[in-house]
Amino acid sequence: MVCAAEQRFGLGESMTYQTLGAVLIVLHAWMAQGAPAQEQIPEVNTEGWTSSEVCGECHQAIHAVWQHSLHSRSWTNGVFQAAYRRALDSFGPTGARQCLPCHAPTSRHTQDYEVAQPITAEGVTCDFCHSVKAVNLTGESCSVELDVGKAKYGPLRHAQSPAHRIVNSPLHTRSEFCAACHEYRNASGLTVLGTYSEWKASPYAKLGKQCQDCHMPLVPGRVVALNVKEKTPASVNLHDISGSHDLDRVREAITLKLDGVDWFGNRVWVFLEVTNRGSGHCFPTGLPMHRAVLEVVLRDRGIEIDRREIQFAVVMLDKEGRPLQHEHEVFLQAARIRSDTRLKPKEARKIEVSFRKVEAPKLTVSASLFYEYCTETIVADEAGERIEPVEMKFLVASVQRTITKPGG
Ligand code: HEC
Ligand code: HEC
Ligand code: HEC
Ligand code: HEC
Ligand code: HEC
């Protein structure tokens, strides 16, 4: 069971909970000192897209955190690039182009499908999100209305900037904004990514708890550097946007309880409960390759004698009924859902597992819940670049109990 988190980001890049800690320290440092004085005010391109590097000259605290997010690597990361190359091989440039609206979203406006411009490779970049004027959720897949150039759309009410026009946008504080990319229905009409609709049907939507409330909490940090503007809010929304790669957060959200073990003759029943306490959508959500697996194992003095596995996953099939196991296939070929056993928001699921022919006098019952993602990534070394499989497997929760056979 190798935990290959580092490889997730490909080409040696890695983002862990620890680096987020480091980023927060940097953020505090900026709060205290402001920024080094600059000769020239960096200029926003009022005619088209502006690089995150330019935004980052003034919005340093936000840039420092975004830089380490998966959003900033949505185009470059090795896992995406491996799948994108498979899409090119299987479906050609026109098929693979369908990945760009979310992984290289400025192409929605520039039509740079060759990814020739540096801004396209910036992926989910500052200027894309802050040029979104409206999100249209009624179409086949979500379309956005963009206002590219002078204006920056955001949540602040009384902000003023010498660098760009500011438009107050309540949309940016709502889940509908994220739905632009976190909800996807393909050409066959099948919902491949349903994070937004899972949330919309959940108690969180009724309570008004948005994606941003969980994924972009307010943290200390200046909205703009001191030399640009002295009076600015002292907190920013965390742009790291961590999800399941933040293990502490998954462990807080998902719990596992052992309700009891019954043993009659040579049969053993194990009663468990798995609860999605704190995730605002299904667990797992997003790609159907994200799975959770509950492993229940019986051991006699340390030696495994039997086991059961229960999956929490959605299985998608193509037109011929073949299960799809790769990202590029689900986006383009998924036609229907065979089964969906994921945990809904706030769902507490009772699970009963039974074993036959148990002969031992004493048993240890253990149950472990894992989060898994099996995929591929690009590996680069002296021999060149190639695609290799990666398996991510993290322990979310585990319980254990030792029992003696009744009357034995
Ligand atoms: C020359 C410095 C400078 C640059 C460069 C700059 N900004 Fe700003 N930005 C500001 C200032 C100043 C404010 C206002 C802060 C305040 O009033 O507290 C601001 C505010 C904002 C806001 C808040 C708007 C709101 O209503 O919530 C957003 C969003 C924003 N900028 C995005 C960007 C993006 C995206 C870029 C790059 C394309 C960028 N900025 C480049 C100085 C800059
Ligand atoms: C995935 C889209 C997305 C990306 C990428 C993004 N932002 Fe934001 N940004 C938001 C949202 C959404 C909010 C408002 C969150 C809220 O109010 O709940 C926000 C808030 C802000 C604000 C207002 C202050 C605050 O923190 O609330 C500024 C300034 C800002 N972003 C600048 C930037 C800069 C600079 C970058 C790139 C380094 C960037 N953003 C990247 C979505 C994005
Ligand atoms: C322009 C498209 C776009 C928008 C808008 C967007 N996202 Fe994403 N998001 C992505 C893509 C693409 C990825 C996958 C990046 C990758 O790993 O290659 C992603 C990944 C994520 C992840 C996964 C991180 C992890 O740990 O696995 C989270 C969480 C997330 N986004 C939350 C949000 C939230 C919250 C919003 C709204 C404030 C939002 N996103 C808006 C495109 C977008
Ligand atoms: C109540 C808090 C909460 C809300 C609301 C919420 N999330 Fe999450 N989200 C979590 C937690 C906790 C996790 C980690 C556990 C998991 O994977 O479900 C997570 C994980 C994710 C992931 C990573 C999935 C993976 O397996 O890599 C994405 C993407 C994501 N959320 C997007 C969103 C979007 C988009 C919305 C709004 C439509 C949203 N979330 C609303 C708490 C929340
Ligand atoms: C509607 C927007 C959208 C489209 C279109 C899209 N993706 Fe994604 N993709 C996402 C989001 C959002 C995530 C993060 C999902 C999550 O973790 O819940 C993601 C995640 C991924 C990941 C996992 C990356 C990682 O770091 O874990 C791969 C691989 C991927 N997409 C490949 C593709 C390919 C290949 C295509 C085109 C055939 C494609 N995507 C089209 C939105 C999209």
Number-wise, the strands total 17
Percent strand equals 25-35%
Q: Based on Cα principal axes, name the global outline.
A: globular
* Ions and ligands: heme C
Strand order of the largest sheet: 12-11-16-17
> Helix count, per DSSP?
15
User: What would the average pLDDT be, to the nearest integer?
Assistant: 90
Rg (C-alpha, Å): 24 Å
Largest sheet: 4 strands, antiparallel
Low-confidence stretches: 1-38
Structural class label: alpha+beta
Distance between the termini: 36 Å
Q: What's the structural domain tally?
A: 2
Fraction in helix = 25-40%
How would you describe what is shown here?
It is a single chain. The chain has 408 residues and is α+β, with helices and mostly antiparallel strands. The protein has two domains: 4-174 and 210-237, no CATH class; 247-404, Immunoglobulin-like, CATH 2.60.40. Helix content is 26%, strand content 32%. The strands form seven sheets. It has a four-stranded antiparallel β-sheet with strand order 12-11-16-17. A hairpin with a 2-residue loop joins strand 16 (362-381) and strand 17. Helix 3 crosses helix 4 (60-66). The longest helix has 19 residues, at 78-96. The chain is globular, with a radius of gyration of 24 Å. It starts with a helix and ends with a strand. Mean pLDDT is 90; it is low at 1-38. Bound molecules: heme C (5 copies).
